Amino acid sequence: MRILRVGDHKRMPWKNGGGETVEIAVSPEDAGLAGFDWRVSMATVATDGPFSIFPGIDRTLAILAGDGMVLDIEGRAPVLLTMASDPLAFPADIPVGARLQNGAITDLNVMTRRAGLAHTLSRVDVDGNRIVALPSSTCLLLCHLGTLSFRWDDDTHALTAGDALLIEDSAGKVLEIDGEAQYYLASITTG
């Protein structure tokens, strides 16, 4: 179990050079954009344009801030993604264009290498105490809004907005959390 503080997240340019991404976690650790097995990041999108292409990668996107954007995903009807939308999964190796609705947005991006890995991303609102079953061997919980505390191995820790909790070898375990917050849970499985 590792707590990843918002101030320690790695900032780096987008693969296509069109902006900056904030890398929360990647595997293997310190992997570059061409060599990761999985990656969780946030990015601010300030202009319309194409997404970077990542061969052999699946991606899920959620909007964290802003009025949303329309995604033009090759082979699909355009879709409006907002903060109220469920996270959207799509291949990262097909052309995707983004059109902002009303100014810049910030998104959460989870990517896994299709050959051997899969992932899910869910958004959860917390008001009080909750038990979270960890569904896979690797889970990343990102505190998006508010503050939450959690118990792990009889110790209590706190996460504030932007902090993340990375738990490996977590399948079948539970996490006791408490607070008023919204978090995203990325679950990464082998398959």
UniProtKB/TrEMBL annotation:
InterPro entries given in the database record: RmlC-like_jellyroll, RmlC_Cupin_sf, Uncharacterised_HutD/Ves
Organism field: Rhizobium pisi
A Pfam family reported for this protein in Swiss-Prot or TrEMBL: HutD
UniProt name for this protein: HutD family protein
Domain of life: Bacteria
